[in-house]
Design brief:
- It is a single chain.
- The chain has 299 residues and is an alpha+beta fold.
- The chain has a domain of 133 residues: D-amino Acid Aminotransferase, Chain A, domain 1 (2-Layer Sandwich).
- The protein is 30% helix and 25% strand.
- The chain is built from seven helices and 17 strands.
- The strands form four sheets. Strands 8, 9, 12, 13, 14, 15, 16 and 17 form an eight-stranded antiparallel β-sheet that branches. The chain has a five-stranded antiparallel β-sheet with strand order 1-2-3-7-6. Strands 4-5 form a two-stranded antiparallel sheet.
- β4 and β5 form a beta hairpin.
- α1 runs parallel beside α7 and α4 packs across α5.
- The chain is globular and about 60 Å long.
């Protein structure tokens, strides 16, 4: 059951606001950053009028789980998620931050979305229907929606300030960020996906695809940033219900998208709010994904 109202926005007048994303509020803390995952939810490039209680906690704590699991593969930006170890200026806000915030080192984000796909869905499925390939990668003929691909593929995209990110080829990504860097990011993205998908399989979850982001530290070291293998950055499907040839039930916000399609929202302002039943069910999906993947209860 929902036990608290959603946290839609933070306001800490004694801290310096670095920026607000669709979901996260970011503050400067010395040379580092404080990332606070709110309960905002976006769909079709708009933040909706309703939040999903505890969604930010799921994103924060699940990301922390994955950062720890892939730390041996690539350095990540997390300093700590333990509020009791946060710097003194953050202590007055401990009650708000607990469970939904991480202190991270600052990096220079790389302007490419790194996407790994193991199944044919979403924009990849649409592109395959039109062209028989995804991001320049030729795929076998006759594939159906939600089919498992012969092997996971790397399908980068450009980061859009507004509107949809745009799928591009690996070659185009190399022209933007450098070929050697993209080759390494491809390697890392696919390995993160493989490790995450293998673990998720044991929890009864198919990771159809996922998006990860990287930054560069001052010494040009590649650092994994933002979030990792969450219901916001990935498509999570219940393995026991997987049926190729159609869209799949999911643990992610596809449920919200489906509702918005059902009410025939024109995807323009004014932005709708969600009925209580949709809010409740969405929360249940996020929390169930967290429990399955981590084997523990949300704190």
């Amino acid at each position: 059951m929902i036990t608290a109202a959603p946290l839609l926005e933070t306001s800490f007048p004694d801290l310096t606001l670095h920026g607000r994303g669709k979901v996260r509020d970011i503050y400067r803390v010395g040379d580092d950053l404080l990332i606070v995952a709110t309960d905002r939810i976006s769909a079709f490039d708009y933040v909706l009028g309703s939040g999903i209680p505890d969604k930010g906690k799921v994103l924060n704590q699940l990301s922390a789980f994955w950062f720890e699991r892939v730390g041996g593969l690539v350095p990540h930006h997390v300093i700590t998620t333990d509020v009791d170890r946060f710097p003194a200026p953050l202590k007055p806000h401990a009650d708000v931050l607990r469970g939904r915030a991480m202190l991270v080192r600052r990096t220079r984000p790389i302007a490419i979305e790194c996407v790994a796909r193991g199944y044919l869905s979403g924009s990849g499925w649409k592109e395959y229907q039109q062209m028989g390939r995804v991001c320049g990668i030729e795929l076998p003929r006759g594939l159906k929606e939600s089919d498992r691909l012969p092997e996971p593929i790397f399908t980068p995209a450009t980061k859009a300030e507004s509107g949809h990110d745009i799928n591009i080829s690996e070659e185009e990504a190399g022209q933007i960020a450098g070929r050697e860097l993209i080759a390494r990011l491809k390697q890392l993205t696919l390995e993160i996906y493989r490790r995450g998908a293998a673990h998720a399989e044991t929890a009864g979850i198919i990771v159809a695809d996922t998006k990860v982001e990287f930054g560069l530290a001052r010494d040009e070291e590649i650092v994994l940033i933002d979030e990792v293998l969450t219901p916001d950055s990935s498509r999570f499907w219940p393995r026991e219900q997987y049926t190729p040839g159609q869209g799949q039930p999911s643990f992610d916000k596809q449920y919200v998208r489906d509702y918005l399609e059902q009410i025939r929202w024109n995807k323009q302002p004014p932005v709708p709010s969600l009925p209580d039943a949709v809010v409740q069910r969405t929360r249940e999906k996020y929390v169930e994904a967290f429990r399955r993947l981590t084997g523990r209860e949300l704190a």
